[in-house]
Design brief:
221 residues, seven-stranded mixed sheet, 12 strands, alpha/beta, Rossmann fold, globular
Length: 221
């Protein structure tokens, strides 16, 4: 059975202090020279081309092949020529930005269907900040009552990046919501998921409060 791998990154992706973490991801991709697809969808309302360029430059410097796949909204998430670029990637990276826009763009899209299929075949799926948020089972969306269903690739988990800058009241876990909330600091605490095993990689901490135990330092997701 092919192992599935998901990485949740706290943010500030594509910097030199990400090198050790991202080399680990490239090793997990299982190719001598992995192909990386950078999706700057979440940055669509800022500068997606710059976000894509930064990712391509970063991973090429680490020895990988990389391309920016300019899926920036729901229309392009269903555009065959763009989605086709995901078919041959060993690692798919969702950048940071606007989590709401990212979720709206990918939900029930052709791109997400292909990503799920490739992930089941062993492709490493990485989300940074907004990208990590949408990969959980639930996502905070105050404009729609606080919580909404996310893409669900990591079941029973909600990710709150940059939690050190949030109002503590926003990070309280209600009883009818995900059974684990991952509070990720801005820089790199990376839980890599191998089916049921979670392995933290990086220099910073991720906190995983539960209803009974409160906040604790985590060994993984």
């Amino acid at each position: 059975m092919t192992p599935t791998r998901v990485a949740l990154v706290g943010g500030n992706e594509f910097r030199r202090d990400c090198d050790a973490m991202d080399r680990t991801l490239l090793e997990l991709a299982g190719s001598a020279r992995p192909s990386v697809a950078i999706l700057p969808t979440a940055a669509a309302r800022e500068n997606p081309r710059l976000a894509g360029h930064n990712g391509v430059r970063h991973f090429k410097r680490l020895g990988a092949r990389a391309q920016a796949v300019m899926i920036v909204d729901r229309k392009t998430a269903n555009q065959p020529e763009l989605v086709a670029a995901l078919e041959h990637s060993h690692l798919i990276y969702l950048t940071g930005g606007d989590a709401v826009h990212l979720l709206d763009s990918l939900s029930r899209s052709h791109a997400w269907d292909v990503m799920l299929a490739r992930h089941a075949q062993g492709v490493v799926l990485v989300g940074s900040s907004a990208g990590a948020m949408v990969l959980g089972s639930q996502m905070r969306r105050p404009q729609r009552g606080g919580w909404v269903k996310a893409l669900g690739i990591v079941p029973g988990v909600a990710v709150l990046p940059h939690h050190e800058d949030r109002d503590p009241a926003e990070t309280v876990q209600p009883r009818d919501r995900p059974n684990r909330i991952t509070r990720a600091r801005t820089v790199r605490r990376l839980p890599v998921r191998h089916r049921r095993r979670r392995e933290p990689v990086g220099s910073q901490r991720a906190q995983h409060p539960t209803l009974t135990a409160g906040t604790r330092r985590a060994r993984g997701l």
